[in-house]
# Entry
Amino acid sequence: MATVRQVQVTFDCREPERVARFWCEVLGYVVPPAPTGFATWEEYDRSLPLDRQGASYVAADPNGVGPRLFFQRVPEGRTVKNRVHLDVRVGTGLVGAERLAALEAESKRLVALGATVVQVLLADEENESCIPMQDIEGNEFCLD
# Structure
């Protein structure tokens, strides 16, 4: 039986570099070095056929712990709810008002980057608070 060693999360989007840079800011990720033989990603991109230029971009955890994020250009926009989404874990270990304050502070930072708050879900008897949001192209994610 094969063992999975790494996971990459792929986003379909209209503007790969823009969305990748948004997620770099959200997660503290970085754009990895350009492929061997190229000084910059822009130089690499210019070496591609015209229809492939700007078609993809990458964001990576600088510590190598989190999954690599790959952003690929697709012609169609998002039309239905995501079947998979990221949970950005900013409230881990916090409860009640302290958790909600941490979630709200992070949501304000992300709104300034272009994200949208969908709603604020307050804690109940079964679940702690969380904030469903959308990134700059409408992809859902949660502050958890």
In short: The two ends are 33 Å apart (CA to CA). The mean pLDDT is 91. Residues 34 and 42 are 9 Å apart (CA to CA). Strands lie at 8-13, 56-59, 68-73, 86-88, 116-117, 131-134, 140-143.
